[in-house]
Amino acid sequence: MWIRPQHKQLQYAGRIDWTDRNAPVFVFPCTSVQMRFTGDTLKVYVRNKKAYWENYLGCILDGEQTKLRLPDDGDVLLEIPVKPSAEQTDGDGSHEVLLFKRQDSCHEVTFLGFEIGEGETVLDLPYVPQRRIEVYGDSVSAGEVSEALDYVGKPDPEHKGQYSNSWYSYAWMTARKLGAQIHDVAQGGIALLDGTGWFNEPDYIGMETVWNKIHYNPVFGPSTDWDFTQYKPQVVIVAIGQNDSHPEDYMKEDYNCSRSARWRREYGELLKKIRGQYPDAWIVCITTLLEHDPSWDQSVDEVCGSLQDEKIRHFVFRRNGSGTPGHLRIPEAEEMAEELSTYIEELDIEW
Hints:
alpha+beta; 6-stranded antiparallel sheet; 17 strands
């Protein structure tokens, strides 16, 4: 029995392109669809478009996580093995699946529906959390290379995307600790300003362009705008400042040069634009444990102070900018999430 994307008992999270109601497009990491169902048959029908790397979907079925390899391009029907209901030792014999985007815009995936057994039923899921966070960040916020556990505290191994998993990003970990929904506007290699960072080399695209988009990778065609009325977070995390030193670490070389001053000015403008969309949200500005020069944190602190907005804060981690030369692995992301969620819980937030 086919379960189409518009089925009223499916739950979605993330910025999703709903132009075609029967073919929603997942772009950002942590974007997901969730279903509770009866029977022991589960298949998922998706369409993938690849920009680079190997592409995978994440799947958590009855609490057990796997990853599903996608074709480089085109439609595919993926069968997901289901533990027979008769073997379950607790519960009502139903199953719950969460299908999610592990990676950033290295690919876009269109969800075309689930298939369950004939005569089986889709059941109601638990309530949707009323706590909502949104994250603007780079590869660390996306969970890039997070599963390379043999490289904790070390540079990254050679990889083709197989170790990237947004479930293990500090961003999604923080959301789970807070019991919150998440929109994770995160892209590997992105900096604040166009023309810097690593994303879309050599025509670098920055967060100043991406922050209000759904589609933004030019490989997939024209960019499209996000409708901010669809999601109103109570907390926004801005985690930009890591890739901005490429191709030149001008902030480290001369904190007071014109380029450094421009970065601080544009960082402030981004925060003002976010504030314009979310007048009542708390905005928490951070960088990460990934090694970088402290001048970037100094700039973030200076901008936050200059805006004189009680609900715009700068949070600094215990091992900020010094924790690892490579991407954060699961334990390091857990460390960040624990510190950040504790800090957020102590704010006077009207959830």
